[in-house]
Amino acid sequence: MMEDEAKRKLKAAELQCKKDMVKMWGNYVPPATNSKAIHDQNFMGKVVEVVSGDCLIVADDAVPFGSPAAERRVCLSSIRSPKMGNPRREEKPAPYTREAREFLRQRLIGKQVIVQMEYSRKVTQADGPTTSGAADRFMDFGSVFLPSPAKGDSDEVAASSAAAINGSQPVGVNIAELVLARGFGNVVRHRDFEERSNHYDALLAAEARALSGKKGIHSAKESPAMHITDLTVAAAKKAKDFLPSLQRIRRIPAVVEYVLSGHRFKLYIPKITCSIAFSFSGVRCPGRGEPYSEEAISVMRRRIMQRDVEIEVETVDRTGTFLGSMWESRTNVATVLLEASLAKMQTSFGADRIAEAHLLEQAERSAKNQKLKIWENYVEGEEVSNGNTNTVETRQKETLKVVVTEVLGGGRFYVQSAGDQKVASIQNQLASLSIKDAPIIGSFNPKRGDIVLAQFSLDNSWNRAMIVTAPRAAVQSPDEKFEVFYIDYGNQETVPYSAIRPIDPSVSAAPGLAQLCRLAYIKVASLEEDFGAEAGEYLHTVTLGSGKEFKAVIEERDTSGGKVKGQGTGTEFVITLIAVDDEISVNAAMLQVRIILEGVDKFNNLIGSVHYSDGETVKDLGLELVENGLAKFVEWSANMMGDEAKRKLKAAELQCKKDRVKMWGNYVPPATNSKAIHDQNFMGKVVEVVSGDCLIVADDAVPFGSPAAERRVCLSSIRSPKMGNPRREEKPAPYTREAREFLRRRLIGKQVIVQMEYSRKVTQADGPTTSGAADRFMDFGSVFLPSPAKGDSDEVAASSAAAINGSQPVGVNIAELVLARGFGNVVRHRDFEERSNHYDALLAAEARALSGKKGIHSAKESPAMHITDLTVAAAKKAKDFLPSLQRIRRIPAVVEYVLSGHRFKLYIPKITCSIAFSLSGVRCPGRGEPYSEEAISVMRRRIMQRDVEIEVETVDRTGTFLGSMWESRTNVATVLLEAGLAKMQTSFGADRIAEAHLLEQAERSAKNQKLKIWENYVEGEEVSNGNTNTVETRQKETLKVVVTEVLGGGRFYVQSAGDQKVASIQNQLASLSINDAPIIGSFNPKRGDIVLAQFSLDNSWNRAMIVTAPRAAVQSPDEKFEVFYIDYGNQETVPYSAIRPIDPSVSAAPGLAQLCRLAYIKVPSLEEDFGAEAGEYLHTVTLGSGKEFKAVIEERDTSGGKVKGQGTGTEFVITLIAVDDEISVNAAMLQVTT
Q: Pfam families this protein is in (predicted)?
């Protein structure tokens, strides 16, 4: 009924009285206990292994390295974590077992800890630590403290870290408390007088917090299920099936689970959730029982046990052990063993396949020179190899006289020593045995690994045998089957229970007489491989079938097979086998040359490839000749070969050319327009998909808004269909839109990894698929998506490991995805041209798309799509579309371009048209004004090529639709206003603007913070609709002007009156001497050029901009040019004879004519009712009056972009007042009709 804390205090008080025998407890006799306190055995050390969530192995710093007492098993006092289970007994791990061990592994492995030993206890399997072992044993318990905890660890145990009862707690975090606080264990409820943790109350408090927080085993959630494929106990064939998937990945992250020997380990690979046996390629440590074997194991345990490592897999051996190289913290682990003289290199099959072989050789050479450990008796000798004198070990190889007793295949067999006294002794012992009747069922139950007598089925002889497999349950019938391995002969068969007998220990104690061997220096095909059966039959014929004796020269002892557990296991002698009466070895006799016929030439000559055995590898003779600079690649005959073989030949020749090997010694490479890019990799977000092979990526490392932030990246070595150019009337190629849309959906806004590879001078003919300048340098690279969509990894799985010049990042290569979907082709580079580091993977992806007839490789036409582009159509056409757009409340659209901070080009899929769209009631700074580029950058990052929704309110005179836009349910205008990058324009009222209150709120927030365009904002008071609002009060800019041209619709051009610039330009023009018309062809002005043009009404020469020009070169003086007079605002068409080139000093000054419109009123355009009358009246009171005017600038409208002709460019919205008048022209224009 009481609180836990009060209850604990009562219990502790009673226990103390019992110990001190106080009053009523004076005659108390404490019960027997199986725990005993440990005093003064505290120590410091490093954690070597996490056995389970409540058991560690710690290397004591005070004990010499290599001593058996150095590693101490410490069970955490007074806690119990979920049991690990035992696979041999088919016991599954309890929930959260793996999570508890992984938590401690990541926290503790290799870390320095302080250990307080507290008590030892006789532990049974029921209540001991969570690992299996002997039935009853004594275990040591203690508290372990981490002096340097991880961030957050101290917070988890803060409430209880001071609860040290029997001594002061060391500085740091109690690991047992951490385990309990995470919900990875329970506190043991000890009986009275049982020893317990000195910090027992702190543990109870940590457990209580985990219970209240429902963490780990205390939560209602199930532990995440994880199926781990254990290849260490599976058949070797299953390991071979996994080999291709492991070879595809360059460096595979793994965790070392166990150190089996100095060079052999059990690893867990998280990426494919499997455990494998792994051995160093080309490196061997002493075997168990040999000198220094235990020290090699100790070194590896300290260095890599339960550490995160990286591996590269080369192959898999016959036992299912993967061979390769391993790195820990970027150090090749094999070099550690070699430098410490605890291992030797084995390069009898060549070191070319071993990663970083030169480092291993260097490490071994250093150890030999110092004569350390296994090299202490090393004697140097001289051996000439390839013209160099190398130091080598010279010793006599061991030779045996043997007979072959069994042939397995794959160049492997068993032998027995010929004339050995041991053989005769065993045979005599067996002959003297009297074989009894079959044992009574149940009285004799042999199990796996036992040595028995078994009757061989072919000759009924009784021989010593090892049980390989036995029935799981007790024997019930004499016909139950046992698989046995005859240890004196090497053969294996299945026999009934009635054919086996127990054997006298004196007979079974002697080691088996059969020795497993394999032929050295050659690789013989296994029985499952091509020609394997023939090779096995031939080996049987020349050895076991011949009945001859042989001389076996032992080249090497391979201990990777472990102990003898059946046929093909145990230590293997790698030998040269020579018949006593023969000179040639069986190894040499087994060598065969394999010829693969590829085709015939026009003269019926056979064309083929020659393959031969060289040690453990099969080599292509043609490829070797090319690799050594002794032959050339011939295209026509290579076309008969497979693509892979052809690529290898081509790559080998190219490498020889680069290195100038032998016949290529004087080779001069051709000029190339590509240049490699090094060390320019970066991460960023995709802002724009330009085409199917070109992206714009915002570099995360470059500050936002910087011109260098957005980088254009063309995908290396691929070419997608061209986008075309509407200005040149070039249509997009088939599947262009599909390729870009595919990448848009996959990449826009996604984080990517970019590997820059090369830059190239690109022409329009062979460059990326967008139009631009004639010749320019473009940067090419590979782009990887770390978080691919479902199914993406499958599309590139067959080729994702083909990273040639560097390791491939985690993720999917976008170029491969494009090719696999049939949206591009691989560029066939010329020799010495830079290319993708993953070129082979791209070729493989293209081949798959070809075979699958996808995209551009299919016979189907790309779906036709007609898109109405209203951005280049007349404004009237846009107005015709207005009703259909207004009918739909929220229209899905895609942002194609960001033209300015508030103006965009949108594509509307529902009606297949593109429109110009501007945010209603919101304006950003114009081009060239402060913060205009930042507003564009914000919109590009936020909405470029994103899916949005719009509501259209109206359309303006230029055909631009006005309305509101939402992206992910956020009003886009609020983003600009909140950032201080836009202002609201509500001179015509805010009632027609969607969510106007949100826009006003966002603008108010930016004003209050004085952000960006509001940095100089000064508040004032203004009364509006009876409310007092804070508004900006500043003096409006006023100009003195004359009107030079009236357009209609309330728009006109003005020129500053009395401005010195005007007088200066006029003087410069007056001083010019106008030459005769230029010779046709010598002067070809193009659109946008500034020239001198003769005005048709008064024949005066004025500065003008070319608005339209003939497409071809000028052929006649009468060819027409449309020009815009930049100092007056009028526009007309003139002949070629009426234009002249202009001096740059005259053309450089900006035009003097400024486009304006009347503020606060809407004047009908010339096409509308009363538009002509309005235009005529405006002409009369301005240009026709000859007066000067005062122009009050109310607003600058930059939506017109740059000046490209009449009616374009920045527009001043003004109040126009004649100097000698009080009423404005704006007011005079207002008319009321009834």
A: SNase, TUDOR
Helix/strand number for the chain, H first, E second: 28, 63
| Cβ atoms of residues 328 and 318 within 8 Å | no
Evaluate whether 769 touches 720 at the Cβ level (below 8 Å).
yes
Comparing CA positions, the residue from 590, 567, 511 lying closest to residue 318 is 567
In 337-387, the DSSP E strands lie at: 344-345, 380-385
> Cα 457 from chain centroid?
58
Dist. CA 856–CA 719, nearest whole Å:
12
Select from 894, 919, 1046 the least CA-distant residue to 993: 919
Distances from the Cα of 866 to the Cα of 259, 732, 877, 913, angstroms: 67, 12, 16, 8
What are the C-alpha distances in Å from 258 to residues 302, 309, 1146? 12, 13, 83
What lies within 8 Å, CB to CB, of 25 at 6+ separation is: 17, 18
Residue of 832, 703, 712 lying closest to 779 (CA atoms): 712
Residues 6 or more apart in contact with residue 304 via CB below 8 angstroms = 256, 259, 265, 326, 328, 333
* Closest to 475 measured CA to CA, from 509, 502, 456: 502
pLDDT band at 433 (very low <50, low <70, confident <90, very high): confident
- Cβ atoms of 352 and 282 within 8 Å: the answer is no
SS (H, E, C) 952-967: EEEECCCCCEEEEEEE
Nearest to 186 by CA among 133, 130, 237: 130
Q: How far apart are CA 1163 and CA 1226, in angstroms?
A: 10
Q: Per the structure block, which two tokens stand in for 469?
A: 């497999």
Helix axes 4-20, 200-212, angle to 10 degrees: 160
CB of 937 within 8 A of CB of 925?
no
Helix (H/G/I), strand (E/B), else coil: 103:
helix
Tens digits of residue pLDDT in 848-902: 999 888 988 988 887 877 888 888 888 788 888 888 888 888 899 999 999 889 9
Do residues 1049 and 1171 lie in contact, with contact meaning Cβ atoms separated by under 8 Å? yes
Q: Is 23 left (phi over 0), alpha (psi -120 to 50) or beta?
A: left
Amino acid (1-letter code) at residue 424? A
- What gap in Å lies between CA 814 and CA 804, rounded to an integer? 17
| Mean predicted confidence (pLDDT) in 122-140 | 57
Instruction: Give residue for tokens 């002697």.
Output: 510
Residues 241 and 312: their CA atoms lie apart, in Å, by: 17
Q: Are 964 and 971 in contact (CB under 8 A)?
A: yes
Q: For residue 240, what is the enclosing H or E element? A: helix 236-248
Tens-digit pLDDT profile for residues 436-466: 778 888 888 899 889 999 999 888 888 999 9
Q: How many CA atoms lie within 13 A of 1023 on its CB side?
A: 1
Give the 3-state secondary structure of 837-866: CCHHHHHHHHHHHHHCCCHHHCCCCCCCCC
Q: CA-to-CA distance for 235 and 1209, rounded, in angstroms?
A: 77
- Answer whether 0.85 is exceeded by the pTM: no
For residues 194 and 220, what is the distance between their CA atoms, to the nearest angstrom? Answer: 32
Q: What is the pLDDT of residues 73-111, one digit of tens each?
A: 999 999 999 988 776 667 788 888 888 999 999 989 999
For residue 397, the one-letter residue type is K
d(CA 1055, CA 37): 102
Is 258 strand, coil or helix?
strand
Sheet holding 1120-1125, edge to edge: 1131-1135, 1120-1125, 1101-1108, 1090-1094, 1139-1140
Residue with tokens 């051709």: 670
User: 498: exposed, middle or buried (C-beta count within 10 Å: 0-12, 13-18, 19+)?
Assistant: middle
